[in-house]
Design goal:
Layout (H helix, E strand, L loop, with lengths): L1 H9 L4 H9 L13 H6 L7 E3 L2 E3 L1 H8 L8 H20 L6 H24 L7 H10 L1 H4 L1 E10 L5 H10 L2 H12 L3 E10 L3 H4 L2 H9 L5 E8 L2 E12 L7 H31 L1
Antiparallel strand pairs: 1-2, 3-4, 3-6, 5-6
Amino acid sequence: MNKYLAGAISLMTLAVGIFLGAFGALYFQKKKGVVSEKEEKENIPKNVYKRIGDVVITPLDLNIVQSIPYLNQSKEDAEKSLMKLAVFYQEGKNLGLDKDSVVRRLRYWADKSVVVDAFYRRYILPKIKVDSSDVMEYIRQHKDEFSREVALLTVAFKDVKLADTLKKLLKDGSYAANLMLEEFARSGKISVQPSGYQNVGLGKFVLSEEEYGTLRKAKKEDVIGPFTVGPGAYVLAKVVDIRRVNIKDLDPQIKEVVYQYLLDQKRRAVEDSVFNVLLKKYQ
């Protein structure tokens, strides 16, 4: 769950900002998006661990990199990561890339992004809270969907002209109809795939609103679709079986999907609320 929170944070900032913010190593001091060589030298920390050209690495930098959970780096790995940044930065600067107008703007926004990341973690993230009771309440509110599982027979195809024929064959379900479907499959025109039982409630998170509405209303032996699943790719699905399940016994992975959905909804709400207040303050 904490990993999802970290992912939500990253969506707030430019990739370059997170890159510099996460590693926190180069100590760029910016003025109107431009860093002079003199400014860089004057702002070198005293407790230097390693110096590479104009770039210095401090013990704090190593601690920052090692504290990033998903990197799980040793001190040696952290040092190498920072040295790569320093060396690549130095070479890029020597090649004049720091004078490029786009690079200057990226550096300008990178500085802002690092501050945003710190603000987000300290003042917004604590307000984004979802617990197991919220998850179960959502599931109870949608009990009809989460208490049903469907087994489907799906038919994927590319020629949309086959849709009506395939739909009729699936609805028919006779021996002759199945032979024709097998013939289509052998010729490579369709792909037939049976699925295990799938929780209907999960459809909300992977299907369009129209598709999910169709699945919710579907009964045993119904054929739903065709649904567009990609450029020139379509799917029909026959409901082979429907069974009831107790929402108290749902797979933990289903609850995790609901949790992440609610967390994302909460994140959006909190972000928008804070944004609207601050917009009035600074606009």
